[in-house]
Amino acid sequence: MNPIFADAPTTIFETMSRLAMQHDAINLGQGFPDDPGPEDVRAKAAAALLSGWNQYPPMMGIPDLRQAVATHYKRFHKLDLDWQSEVMITSGATEALADSLLAILQPGDEVVLFQPMYDAYLPLVKRAGGVPKFVTLRPPHWRIDEAALQAAFSPKTKAVIFNNPLNPTASVFPREDLELLGRYLVKYDAIAICDEVWEHVLFDGLSHTPLISLPGLRERCIKIGSAGKIFSLTGWKVGFVCAAPAIMKVLAKAHQYVTFTTPPNLQAAVAYGLDKDDAYFTGMRQTLQTARDRFAKGLTEAGLTVLPSQATYFLNVDLSPISNDVDDAAFCQNMVEQAKVAAIPVSAFYSEDQVKTVIRFCFAKTYDKLDGAIERIAAHIKRG
After folding, report:
1. What pairs with residue 241 in β-bridges?
2. Residue 125: what pLDDT?
3. Are residues 234 and 293 in the same domain?
4. SS3 string of 235-281?
5. Given pLDDT bands bounded at 50, 70 and 90, which one contains residue 30?
6. Of 124, 242, 250, 289, which has the maximum CB count within 10 A?
7. Same domain, yes or no, for 130 and 222?
């Protein structure tokens, strides 16, 4: 068996979900919403399944969706994209990441990774023959440190995986950090694989700035988006990839031999959804922000230190005020067993130089679940 996968540990999501089931706990670990997603978008998918085309769609994606992606990004981010040469549809953002790494890496190429990071990054980099170089981000603001960036980049750097907004920290990089990273991309002639799946799930009036939109970066960025995150339909696995034509030609070849295509009825529904009026997008954000505020208030009243949550479905708690030697994994294990609430230790998203004082909750749940979790956590903390 390939050792990259055969020797990989069980994911923290599987571990905590199994414990949640075992202890009949409220599971706030895995990042999917209780909301079923917009009914009109789901209805479009159902109608397309029954009356639309159900054979192989075009490898690059159906024209309606590729055009809709280009129009959507022009509308929200002022990006000018040629839908025929710069837009491709994939079976989820994770496939897009795999395509990108397989397309641009040769064995021995170095890839800069910001940790904590989505758990698929490291095995995909290794499977593509890349050599990971880590930049460690730390709470509470998770900013990029230039000294760490300088240490990670080298003449062997071929790519950077850049997740913004950042999961699992629920933070948004300010423009200064984007410009700093951009300077290093240019200096070392590297390509940024931009995981921007949370681009619409931002709070408190924040707006998303795609790295590809910065001056001088148009030809060295791969922009990845996700219908699953935009429409709270995480099971659909419909991703968008945008890149300059020279890069896209190679990405398309990788995609051709990975999944080739994506269900046409889902593509048709997403094309419809991307054209929804602004009220949907602002309403979606407000609904999630209200849940975030409700949950953050309850955790704070329970005695926990809540870190800022600027984006995503997640909210983090800093455990260091509780104890100088706190261990996030042990805390989560104890909490699921004793309080019957499952969360995720953020140390699981590091490969090295771990931060072991932060735990992550998903707040995209019903109020009954959130309120029940707060009640259990408060009682757990009170018991000591």
Report:
1. 88, 224
2. 98
3. no
4. CCCCEEEECCHHHHHHHHHHHHCCCCCCCHHHHHHHHHHHCCCHHHH
5. confident
6. 242
7. yes
Angle, to 10 degrees, between the axis of helix 93-104 and the axis of helix 245-256? 110
Examine the domain organization and report whether 122 and 15 are in the same domain.
no
Residue 308 structural domain: 3-30+279-383
* CA nearest neighbour of 317 among 284, 292, 289: 292
Nearest one of 226, 197, 109 to 160, comparing CA atoms: 109
Q: Are 350 and 116 in contact (CB under 8 A)?
A: yes
Q: Rounded to whole angstroms, what are the CA distances from 270 to 5, 31, 354?
A: 32, 21, 38
As a whole number of angstroms, the longest Cα–Cα distance in the chain is 61
Tokens matching residue 302: 């329970």
pLDDT tens digits, one per residue of 67-118: 999 999 999 999 999 999 999 999 999 999 999 999 999 999 999 999 999 9
Torsion of Cα atoms, 353 then 317 then 31 then 75, to 10°: -90
Per the structure, how many domains does the chain have?
Answer: 2
CATH, residue 199:
3.40.640.10
Same domain, 283 and 272: no
The tens digit of pLDDT for each residue in 291-350 reads: 999 999 999 999 999 999 999 999 999 999 887 788 999 999 999 999 999 999 999 999
pTM: 0.96
Distance between alpha carbon 344 and the CA centroid of its chain, in Å? 15
**CATH number of domain containing 379:** 3.90.1150.10
